[in-house]
């Protein structure tokens, strides 16, 4: 296990890390976490628990994810780490010219143009088939029950739901969006905190996915409903696009950081950004966490890594540089030399010269899962397939309209993706899953959590509770209002444009589970910035 102090971080909440030996589920919603634990107690493994939790999250946290989103997973089982990329491609019929012909110079955030093939149902079915112990119908039962019988809306969920409804009411005035309001605002408003919300359509969709192992979603009755809705409203998504989808098993990519191997999913995901930053940072010494120098170097490394990611990363087959080139020590050395005493304006280098939910699960057999799924920008495209509860994602918004960009919009292509699960190992032993959800905050959160753990010895809860920073653009950096003001002032003197955020919403929401290789004891932490909980036994 990582060597850490079992005490809480001095500037954090009073929540402590959670310890258990038989199983653990960490996520942002108590009902979803308990669903995963229920499956573990029924004899399911960590993979079954991850699927149950993920499915439940589409019901109890619809502001961040849904059946119509994408998913990625890192699965540790029988001494090996497996990666699953279940992100969908753009419709074959879409193109830059087609988008421009429809009157758009940029890819819109809502409507049919940014909709890509959903990967979430395929991820559940694939994980269940390859590594699960229980039938998918049994694993999805808790989610189906919550959707059918309803549940009381939690505080953080209620806040985001109300904000999304107010925003959509102003922006989404076309009739095609009415199904979203029928599903998520049936009383003409968002459900209030403590009010019970249910979705019979969502329940029936989950039953269909469970019974057919997601076949109905891609090649059956649900596929027909999705493509009919698309055709009736000028969408690009076709039956062929859905039928051709299949999740892809991939080899995780990683770097060694001070004796620990940190793993991410390879591109099209942005996990490579976190790895590049860690590769630069391992060349420095960090004697203390709360110092201007520590934060300055972290920020500068992230800026340089993001500059590379935003210029060079897309679906791996379309990239000009390989992941090996981008993660080489020689390239990290060159990029590290750019980090000086003053804040810089980041530019991409040349590697050839050298609205998301996250969950973590573990069981008593040694299996561990790092899983993430999302619709993007909260509720996604604003489109809900009538009568199904399927809120479609808007991942295509990340494509570039520049035909010369590596991430240029094309038909049948995966876009640069923000959601990333993380995992850490040491030698041939699993340390455990970790992740921080939240758009482009995610690789920044990964770097901060890894360094809090490895460099500064914080336990999982303390590593998550510690005040966070977030690079926004150019020299602009946001810090939480709990961030020490003397350090913020010191960063400002180095040229950073520091903004203090009054709300913690934009700094991501994380989960961590570590395992002691000698005793098997699990230690977990959950996000104090939301309604998170660790369920354990």
Automatic annotation (TrEMBL):
Keywords for this protein: Acyltransferase, Glutathione biosynthesis, Hydrolase, Transferase, Zymogen
Residues given in the record as L-glutamate binding sites: 439
GO biological process: glutathione biosynthetic process; glutathione catabolic process
EC number of this enzyme: 2.3.2.2, 3.4.19.13
The name this protein goes by in its record: Glutathione hydrolase proenzyme
Subunit note: This enzyme consists of two polypeptide chains, which are synthesized in precursor form from a single polypeptide.
GO molecular function, one term: glutathione hydrolase activity
PANTHER family: GAMMA-GLUTAMYLTRANSPEPTIDASE (AFU_ORTHOLOGUE AFUA_4G13580) (PTHR43881:SF1)
Pathway info: Sulfur metabolism; glutathione metabolism
Modification(s) after translation: Cleaved by autocatalysis into a large and a small subunit.
Residues annotated as signal peptide: none
The family this protein is said to belong to: Belongs to the gamma-glutamyltransferase family.
Active-site residues annotated for this sequence: 356
Reactions the enzyme catalyzes: glutathione + H2O = L-cysteinylglycine + L-glutamate; an S-substituted glutathione + H2O = an S-substituted L-cysteinylglycine + L-glutamate; an N-terminal (5-L-glutamyl)-[peptide] + an alpha-amino acid = 5-L-glutamyl amino acid + an N-terminal L-alpha-aminoacyl-[peptide]
């Amino acid at each position: 296990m990582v060597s850490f102090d079992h005490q809480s971080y001095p500037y954090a909440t009073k929540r402590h890390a959670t310890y258990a030996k038989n199983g653990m589920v960490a996520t942002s919603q108590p009902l979803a976490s308990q669903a995963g634990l229920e499956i573990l107690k029924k004899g399911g493994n960590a993979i079954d628990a991850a699927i149950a939790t993920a499915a439940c999250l589409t019901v109890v946290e619809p502001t961040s994810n849904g059946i119509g989103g994408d998913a990625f997973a890192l699965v540790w089982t029988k001494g090996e780490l497996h990666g699953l990329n279940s992100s969908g491609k753009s419709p074959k019929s879409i193109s830059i010219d087609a988008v421009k012909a429809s009157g758009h110079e940029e890819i819109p955030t809502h409507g049919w143009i940014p909709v890509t093939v959903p990967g979430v149902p395929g991820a559940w079915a694939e994980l269940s088939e390859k590594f699960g112990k229980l039938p998918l119908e049994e694993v999805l039962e808790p989610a189906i029950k919550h959707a059918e019988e309803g549940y009381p809306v939690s505080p953080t969920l209620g806040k985001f739901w109300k904000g999304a409804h107010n925003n959509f009411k102003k922006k989404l005035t076309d009739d095609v969006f009415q199904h979203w309001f029928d599903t998520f605002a049936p009383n003409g408003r968002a459900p209030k905190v403590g009010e019970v919300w249910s979705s019979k359509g969502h329940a029936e969709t989950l039953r269909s996915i469970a019974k057919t192992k997601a076949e109905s979603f891609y090649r059956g009755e649900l596929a027909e409903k999705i493509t009919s809705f698309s055709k009736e409203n000028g969408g690009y998504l076709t039956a062929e696009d859905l039928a051709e989808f299949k999740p892809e098993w991939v080899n995780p990519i990683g770097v060694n950081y001070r004796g620990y191997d940190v793993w991410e999913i390879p591109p099209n995901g942005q996990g490579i950004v976190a790895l590049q930053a860690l590769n630069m940072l391992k060349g420095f010494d960090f004697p203390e966490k709360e110092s201007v120098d520590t934060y300055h170097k972290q920020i500068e490394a992230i800026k340089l890594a993001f500059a590379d990611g935003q210029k060079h990363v897309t679906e791996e087959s379309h990239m000009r540089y390989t992941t090996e080139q981008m993660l080489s020590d020689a390239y990290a050395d060159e990029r590290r030399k750019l980090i000086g005493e003053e804040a810089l304006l980041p530019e991409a280098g040349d590697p050839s010269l050298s609205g998301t939910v996250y969950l973590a699960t573990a069981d008593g057999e040694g299996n561990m899962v790092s899983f993430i799924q999302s619709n993007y920008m909260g509720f996604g495209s604003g489109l809900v397939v009538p009568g199904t509860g399927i809120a479609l994602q808007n991942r295509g918004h990340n494509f570039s309209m520049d035909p010369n960009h590596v991430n240029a919009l094309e038909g049948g292509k995966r876009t640069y993706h923000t959601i990333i699960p993380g995992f850490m190992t040491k030698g041939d032993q699993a340390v455990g899953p970790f992740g921080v959800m939240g758009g482009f905050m995610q690789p920044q959160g990964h770097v901060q959590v890894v360094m809090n753990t490895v460099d500064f010895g914080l336990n999982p809860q303390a590593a998550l509770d510690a005040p966070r920073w977030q690079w926004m653009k150019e020299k602009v950096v946001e810090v939480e209002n709990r961030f020490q003001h003397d350090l913020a002032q010191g960063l400002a003197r180095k040229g950073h444009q520091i903004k203090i955020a009054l709300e913690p919403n934009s700094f991501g929401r994380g989960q961590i589970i570590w395992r002691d290789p000698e005793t098997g004891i699990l230690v977990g932490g959950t996000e104090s910035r939301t309604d998170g909980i660790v369920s354990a036994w």
